[in-house]
Amino acid sequence: MLEPVEILAATLVGLSACMGLAHVLELPGKLRLTEEEYRIVQPIYYPGFTVGGFIGEFGGILVTAALVAITPKPSPALWLRAVALTALLAMHGIYWLMTHPVNKFWLAGQPVRGAGRGFFALGSQARQRGDWRDLRDQWEMSHVIRTVLTLVALSLLLAAMRI
Known about the structure:
Blueprint: H1 2-30, H2 35-41, H3 48-70, H4 76-107, H5 114-121, H6 132-161
Helix pairs in contact: 1-3, 1-6, 3-4, 4-6
């Protein structure tokens, strides 16, 4: 019973890690863009990353929470999985605090359809303070932090499978 849930959790968190790594790997190139180029490029992430984020992030959090709940207590695997879940929750919190407000800023005036329209209506929009690079840097750094947290969670889930 435990093994299929372990595999599903690792797969979903791995999907989330892949999306984060994509952002991190394109960072050096995006830092060379002008404001006009950056504003043109930013909307390409929607809806693909929105769908992947929903599946990978929400799914990973839910399945990891279920895995924590069904892990025999007390055990080293339980602690590894609990810390993995904490890292995933922190990763998701970073999204709402740092990424989402800037997403709303970049998407202002863009046609967003379907479920994405309701999702991006949530929360407040970042206010432009100073240079546009401030928002770019916040958005890009949020993805670096989120990727590190996701990779920590994935590593812990994989380590727990070996116990």
